[in-house]
Amino acid sequence: MKVYQRLAQAFIAEGTTHMFGIMGDGNMYWMHELDKLGGVQMLEVRHEGAGLGMADGWARVTRTPGIATTTCGPGVSQLATALITASRASSPVVAFCGEYPNNDDEYNQRMDQQSFAAGCETVFLRITSPDVADDVVRKAFYTAKLESRPVMISAPMDVQQMAFEDDDEPYKPSSTILPKRTIHPDPDEISRAADLVGKAKHPVIICGRGAMWSGAGPAVVKLADRIGALIGTSLMAKGWLAENEWYAGISGTYGARNSLKLFEESDCVIAVGATMNRYTTEHGYLYPDAKFVHIDVKPHLVMSGGKAADCYVQSDAKAGVEALEAELARRQVKMTGYRTSEVKKLLVARNVDRAEFPIEPGHVDAREIIQTLDEMLPPSIGVVTGSGATAGFSNMLFNKPRSLVLPGHFFGCIGQMMPAAMGVVVASGNKPHVLCDGDASTMMHIGEFETMVRYKMPLMVVCLNNQALGSEYYKLDAHKMKAELSVVTTPNLGEVGKAFGGRGRMVTSVEDLKAETQEFLANPAPTLLDVRISRSVITLPYRRIHYGRDE
Length: 551
Description:
The chain is an alpha/beta fold. The protein contains 23 helices and 18 strands. A 6-stranded parallel sheet has the order 2-1-3-4-6-5, sandwiched between helices. Strand 1, helix 2 and strand 2 (41-44) form a beta-alpha-beta unit. The protein starts with a helix and ends with a helix.
């Protein structure tokens, strides 16, 4: 047995079922062995970074390591943005990367992959000899799962071809050493938290991804009912618990006006599995008079502006919330809080945007597009959103409770959510999903639409196309500068989708959108909709940030 064969066995023993990437000299033997062993679907992509992005999307929704692969040197360098995005998203990803031979310093594709990985916030592990092959794979999966971050396995081509002597010894996967435990809160910390919450008149519970991952939903609702709290989320947990009548939506920049006003009145915020960064707290201005109780698995977190919570509870989110509710029940605490008919009326009307804008012929109002999609798409269809200017429409106006809502924004980059959405579709077992993103973002990985077609992914890409770099357009416009410098025209992307073998259409009316959405729902297939939106319609977050308007 050779090292590359053992490495393939090890990946399968770690539970690998899907892998995303491009074959090259540095990984082709390993890929060939995976195919020979069977049980792993290898999805060949058109760009190495897209493969890593798909593994990232897989990891975000499954919370298991997404697997990507590329050859050495230039294949690795293509992973930069996707690796940093995965790092910022706390995604467990393992990337198997070839490396140039140790005995050839003049190899054309040589590269210092260790320094590159460090610059991309990625753990680097090299297979220096056959003796460490098992240990490196085990440590890679262990680290990815324990620390929730990307890990690069760098496998020199000459080492891969060496003999692996201990092939009779079964591989021991990372699950044999990874601890399985729930972090429970310190009773004294729970008592201090209960002291703060028990004195509150207007408590708010803000949930992040940590609350979602721990399955804390029922516990959060029970606690909120006891103390009369509003339930909000970070952007990354958008839509979670949206079916609750006291759900107030996103806390922060993408929050609804009525909700933000209610949040400002809060005197106690219970943050559950949320970092409470500057976006969630509006740079610290959103909760001016509130005391903070912070529940998170990390030993400690500092919130936006270097502020620490008044009471920090290190705990699994579900265990911490359950303990806090039980302590309040023991004290016979039962509060009205925000639970009034007046507040309920404000929540019902929170998502209304009445601002009017002129719409030029052949274009549509992006708000109508998102609202129509939200009405037409059943809750079983998950929605993935981008991170450019148009995200202000999708992040605020998709409000129906759904099986999945997955926003971007982790690295502030465009172009990453199409690959992520594709990974999500694969992870779901090829269930239909919808991606809403901007034109510049869509164009970055337009070649991957062919990958969608090749693997028959039921993904409808709704490209909100204003034919501009939207963020820059509105920033230049707000500063009375030449906004037209950011205008970049695009071809008819609907025809591009058809040329790749999928479905496509240029959408210039709500009726066009309805027709295409009905077809997708009846027969889900790779679909690319080029929705020509008017640049005159400014998202509410941009009106607030750049134009000083909140109408």
